[in-house]
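Each record in this resource describes a single protein on a pair of labelled lines. An example record follows, reproduced without changes.
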Amino acid sequence: MTEEGVLRSHSIKSKDESQLKGLTGNKDNTYITKQSKIESTISSGQDFRNPSGRSEEEILPDGFPLSSRLSITDQDWTDWNDRTAAANIFHHPAWTELLSICYGYQPFAFALRNPHGSITAGIPLMELKSISGKRRWVALPFTDHCSPLFNDRESFDELLRSLLAIYQQSDLAELEIRWPTSLIPGIQQSTQFVLHRLPLEANPDKLYSQFHTGHRRNIKIAQNSGVRIEQGVSEQHMRDFYRLHLLTRQRQGMPTQPSRFFRLLREILLEQDLGFILLAYREDACIAASIFLKWQKTLTYKYGASTADALQYRPNNLVMWAAIRWGCENGYTIFDMGRTDLDNTGLRRYKSGWGAEEGPLTYSILAKEPLRSGSGHLMLWMNRIIRGSPVWVSRISGEMFYKYFG
C-alpha cells in the first residue's frame, strides 16, 4: 500500500458477474444484512454488533475520543471502506460480523477525523480474550492481513500514535495489527510469514503462459483425467467443501473451525455476492474445493481442501487456474493467495510458481512482554494428538478451543 493516493472515489463493478452461476446479490457491493439470518444465528436478545454485552465505556479506556470509536456498521465507516482503493474483503463489515457472531468477539472501528468530520485514517479491530482471560485487540483475528487505511502519511502516523496512547493507559495485554507499521517506540515486529499476490490482467492466457511448467502440466493432467470444476454457493457446495476440509485439517494435525463458521460464512458473505466456492469433481465425487472471497478489485483465496486419495489427478491445480481465469475475466486486478509460514518452502514455491509476487508479511504488536516465536503450547499439543486420531477429534477440538487461536 502506498503512502499517498490511497483514497480514491470510484465505483467497482465486475465485467461479467453473471459468469459465476448460482451467485446472487446486489451489484453495487452495498452490504445488506438479512435480519432473519442474523436472528437465526444469535441467541434471543443478543445484539450481533455487541455479542459480549459490554457497554462502550467498558470496552474503551478513559480518555478515548468519542469520534475515534465507531460501530463496524457505521455509515461513515462503510462509506470510507467503499471509497478506499486499498480496502479488501477483510475491511468489509461482513467479515468482522462473521467473526463476531461465530466467536463472540467484540468488533469496532478505530478512526480519526479531520476538523470537518471526515475520516482520514482508520482500521477495524476486535476485542478477544486468551484462554487465560487476558484481553487483546487484534486487526483482525483469523485474518492473514489487515492494513490501516489512510489518506496520507501524517494521518497514518497519527492513527498509530493514538493507538499507542490508548494501549498504554489500558489493561490490554496486547494490541496486534497484522500489517507493517512505523517503527515507533513500543511496537514489536513479528516476521514469521510471507504474502503472495498475483497481479491479474484481462487476458488469462497470457498469465497461463507464465506459470511454472509443473503447474501447466498438472492442469493438463487434471483435464485429461476428467476433472471438472463447478462453482457456486449452495448448502450442498458448502457441505462438500466441509467434508474435505475435515479430512485436510486432520492430515495437517489442526483443529477444524466450528461447522457453524462455514454455515455463517455462506450466509453472511457468499450469499451476499462477496465470494464463492470452486469444487473439483471426478466421476461425480468431489475431490477438492476452495473458498474465495472478493471485494473491490481483489480476489482472495481463503480456504482449500482435498482428499488425499485423489491428489494424483491434480485437482487443486485446476481449481487454482479456474479462480485466476475467473478473476481476469471479471475485472479483478489482484489475486491474493494469502500468507505462508516463512519456513514452509514447499508452499512458497507452489504459490510463486503461479507468478505471484512474494513479499514479507510483518505483524506489528504492542505487548507487555517480549514476543515469543512459534505456536503456543496448546496448539503444538493438539497437532500431535490430531494427526494420529480420527477426524472427529479435529472437529471437536475446534468446537472447544478454536476461538482462542485468533
Notes: The longest helix spans residues 235-252. Confidence is low (pLDDT under 50) at residues 1-58. The chain has two domains: 48-191+363-373, 201-332. The two ends are 24 Å apart (CA to CA).
